[in-house]
Amino acid sequence: METLIDTVAWVHIVQGRILCGRPAGKDVFFIPGGKREGDETDLQTLVREIEEELTVRLRPETVRHVGTYEAPAQVPPNGVTVRMSCYTAEYEGTLTPSSEIAETAWFTAADRALVPPVDQLLFDELVGRELLS
């Protein structure tokens, strides 16, 4: 039986580099965001997760869908698929990693191998759109 992990992510690009974060206790970087709780909408999940991870408030009226991607989870067991709905948005505040995030980094296309398979699909699309260096 296949399992689907449903996530949302914030695509924040500055000067051809995308913001990524490494959660505490993990050795891989991800696009900021996370899993839906209960019956949250994508917007509610996105705003909550980014505030929890990066201590900034996304401006809901500026949220725009970038794309939705699906790929096998990075770590087996087999049969686990990650769906990541990606959005851009403006924010208020100062980007500061919370205790959930060990570090942040600004990645280019050259860093593609450092993110999970579903994030790599986003990287590929952003490169194709000439948004990622």
UniProtKB/TrEMBL annotation:
Which superkingdom heads the taxonomic lineage of this protein's source? Bacteria
Q: Which cofactor does it need?
A: Mg(2+)
A Pfam family the protein falls into? NUDIX
SUPFAM superfamilies in UniProt: Nudix
* Location of the Nudix hydrolase domain: 3-128
Under Gene Ontology molecular function, one entry of this record is: hydrolase activity
Kindly state which keywords UniProt assigns to this record, in alphabetical order.
Hydrolase
UniProt protein name: ADP-ribose pyrophosphatase YjhB (NUDIX family)
Which species is this UniProt entry from? Nocardia puris
